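Standup notes
- HV: blocked on the assembly model, inputs below
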Amino acid sequence: MPHVTFTATLRRHLDAPPAEVPGATVREALEAAFRGNPRLRGYVLDDQGRLRKHVAVFVDGALVTDRDGLADPVRPGSGIHVMQALSGG
Amino acid sequence: MGSSDRLSVATRKGLFLLERRPGGWEIERCAFLGDPVSMVLDDPRDGTLYAALALGHFGVKLHRSDDRGRTWAEVAAPAFPAEPAGAGEAPSVQQVWALEPAGPDRPGALWAGTIPAALFRSGDRGASWSLVRALWDRPERKGWGGGGYDQPGLHSIAVDPRDPRRLLCAISTGGVWGTADAGETWALRATGMYAEYMPPERRGDPNAQDVHRLAQAPTAPERLYAQHHNGVFRSVDGGERWTEITAIRPSKFGFAVAVHPRDPRTAWFVPAVKDERRVPVDGKLVVARTRDGGDTFELLREGLPQEHAYDLVYRHGLAVDAGGDRLAMGSTTGGLWISEDGGDRWVQHPARLPPVYQVAFGQASR
């Protein structure tokens, strides 16, 4: 199963432990991770289920391009990293 | 009504809770240090504190405290319903810009205003929220525009103390909207305002008005004051008709307005240089007070910086307490001033705070 990890900066706001989750796309994998942690969903996705503007997701080191649909494929052994994009001051 | 000994200060980098001690106002505690707190509500009905965060990366959050800020629990934040993929504008809340109790007889019921401009209601102390569709679906919404932010925002919610079904909401930019049936139907209430930034034929369009802040007199709710982009306006008929207050000085631009809790003819403003600069006139921070409904003003400056002061006071950055004598004012450069005598004299708090978004007094304590 894909392995999803979340940026450590999220820990200031809530628990976001790494998880082994089922899924063939980024959306399926993330939604699976949110099922056990529903509050986390609103930190990563906006009201419409899109990736938040200043959140970046990498799959096996490559930046996810479909930020609205999250249809990028993931493999059973993929590593999904949810990071914060750099912004602000 | 007595005075309030509690003051909440929402800033770009945290929420600061102050209490008045024999020696003066002290910061009792700080919460969410480092996080933008766009709005705080110290609910006068039950003392609950609500803090809305606008996290740069992780979106809008709402937290609630039942123990004066010692502990906080995250509750639901206002959010737009998910729309089918590819449908319409698919909005997402960027910021909570107003948070008000929905009436003294409705404990736990709240209204929230947001960017983009929308009104949300909660009946359960923020555990859940629903969009007020009747306002969101108004065709005039397509004519609203961004004011201080890219998207329009609903920043003022005035709940009529005589009848909590009656609301007035102000939008930057989108005029003033009123409802008499708790949000089922809406009508524009910005006739008489004018917009110099619009083409001549649209200047009087109520839907184009950039109201910066709306304040309602609690003891005479038909009396309203508005600090508008183009000046200061008043209404004596609940917003049916507005007239400009031309006596305001040293300038007619500003963001904040506060009304006395018992005397509807007393109100305070914080004028500034308009548009490109947005700093105090001549580098002197002053508060303009009227005691006759806007016919005349006196400028209050004792205790306020009068040289090289570049403090801007945002729309929620000025507040009066329930007693009417205590005022607080916070600025974009992190200055905090408190007056105990209706603004005659101000004392600067020694703290150098992050940029202040809002000051709010708690319920009266004696």
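- HV (later): unblocked. Strands of chain A lie at 3-6, 19-20, 55-59, 62-63, 79-84. Residues 3-84 of chain A form a domain with the Ubiquitin-like (UB roll) fold (CATH 3.10.20.30).
- Next: hand off to the docking folks.
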